[in-house]
Design goal:
The chain is mainly alpha-helical and 161 residues long. The longest helix is centred in the C-terminal third of the chain and has 16 residues.
């Protein structure tokens, strides 16, 4: 019985056609985005310290935080999907998304935004005396009905929506 399973596996492997066309290289204009040294100096102290939870102290080597930051800021800048990072040389999409969630839980991006505001306040100055904010996230409570008469099924003509 094991011979037939092995034969099926080998025939499945041999039936797959090989790629004849080479893969299109990545566009270096879009995928060559890296966090600058000045930005990294501000971001790095805000990152949580990683603790190895492997039961024997080993495990797979961790992807460097800077490579993950490159991938995270690439996704935030372009709006692409996390799995689209797999086609770039930045880092894996699942690794970048996991690291993004860890950093979000540790309030890294909030602290980073606060540091940016402090830096801008030092350079240009922010007028904190005048602030304005507006927003609405609900339906209007007293919204009126539709102004036109609603057609009924019996009055509709054939192929009329």
């Amino acid at each position: 019985m094991t011979k037939s399973i092995k034969n099926k596996r080998t025939t499945q492997k041999t039936l797959k056609p090989k790629r004849t066309r080479t893969r299109t290289p990545n566009n270096k204009t879009t995928t060559n985005f890296h966090v600058s040294d000045a930005l990294w100096e501000v971001l790095q102290p805000l990152l949580p310290v990683h603790k190895n939870t492997h039961r024997f102290g080993g495990g797979r080597p961790r992807v460097p935080d800077r490579k993950c930051a490159d991938g995270i800021f690439y996704v935030l800048r372009t709006g692409c999907q996390w799995k689209a990072l797999d086609e770039t040389d930045l880092c894996s999409g699942s690794t970048a998304h996991t690291r993004f969630q860890d950093w979000e839980a540790a309030d890294v991006f909030l602290k980073f935004w606060q540091r940016g505001l402090e830096h801008f306040d030092e350079l240009k100055g922010i007028d904190w005396d005048w602030l304005s904010m507006d927003g609405a996230m609900t339906k209007a409570p007293l919204a009126g009905g539709k102004k036109r008469p609603q057609p009924h099924g019996s009055r509709k003509k054939w192929r009329q929506a």
